[in-house]
Amino acid sequence: MIRPVLRMGDPRLLQVSRPVTDFADPALAALIRDMQDTMAHLDGAGLAAPQIGVDLRVVIFGLVTNPRYPEAPEVPQTVLINPEITFLSGEEEAGWEGCLSVPGLRGWVPRWKFLHYAGFDENGCRFEREVSGFHARVVQHECDHLDGILYPMRVRDFSRFGFIEELFGGTTTPLPAD
Ligand code: NI
Predict the structure, then answer these.
(1) What are the residues whose beta carbons fall under 8 Å from the beta carbon of 14, sequence distance 6 or more?
(2) What 3-state DSSP class applies to 5?
(3) What spacing in Å lies between the alpha carbon of 151 and ligand 1's midpoint?
(4) CA of 145 to the centre of ligand 1 (A)
(5) CA of 102 to the centre of ligand 1 (A)
(6) How far is ligand 1, taken at its centre, from the CA of residue 119, in Å?
(7) What does each C-alpha distance from 125 to 101, 128, 174 come to in angstroms?
(8) Residue 165 annotated to the active site
(9) pLDDT per residue rounded down to tens, the chain (178 residues)
(10) Candidates 91, 93, 142, 165; catalytic one
(11) Where in the chain are the domains?
């Protein structure tokens, strides 16, 4: 079921979410299905449970082939529950981000370039990955939502934060991170 996405200003987006404790709960499976339906409907690259008003540590993301972003690096379709992130170097990389909770805008956001993440899939199986670049950016963006952090809070250069039309005009709009 497609669910409404909360927008910046809604206090539920600022909460710290709770870990999932019961992976067999049918409500968890229903939540993940709703998140997948909502992300697909909005053509997003990621979505976190708090964005549909559920304060659980569940994110989904993935970018396979999106005609809007032909140059986009592939990110596997992933369900990540109770994520743990470890940064692997002090190296940062800045890039454009957008967010379904901040519609119509993009911001230039520094993120850690290399990271290891671990967590559980929808069946409660633990997995881990080492990633970099756009994949690492999406993970950081989505996991920030679980701690009540929206990407504008990470912007340092506010001359590179604004409405898509004004920033990019007729040129290709850069990738959103969710
Ligand atoms: Ni977002």
Answers:
(1) 148
(2) coil
(3) 7
(4) 7
(5) 7
(6) 19
(7) 29, 10, 34
(8) no
(9) 999 999 999 999 999 999 999 999 999 999 999 999 999 999 999 999 999 999 999 999 999 766 666 667 789 999 999 999 999 999 999 999 999 999 999 999 999 999 999 999 999 999 999 999 999 999 999 999 999 999 999 999 999 999 999 999 866 666 665 6
(10) 142
(11) 11-168
Could you tell me if 88 and 115 are in contact, meaning their C-beta atoms sit under 8 angstroms apart? yes
Q: What are phi and psi of 60, to 5 degrees?
A: -130, 150
72 neighbors 175 (Cβ within 8 angstroms) = yes
Q: Measured in angstroms, how far is the CA atom of residue 46 from the centroid of ligand 1?
A: 7
Phi, psi of 97 (to 5 degrees): -135, 150
Q: Of 88, 68, 171, nearest to 135 (Cα)?
A: 88
How far from chain centre, in Å, is Cα 126? 20
Q: What is the CATH number of domain 11-168?
A: 3.90.45.10
Q: Which of 62, 112, 115 is nearest to 85 (CA)?
A: 115
CA 125 / ligand 1 centre spacing (Å): 25
Here the tokens at position 119 are: 């967590």
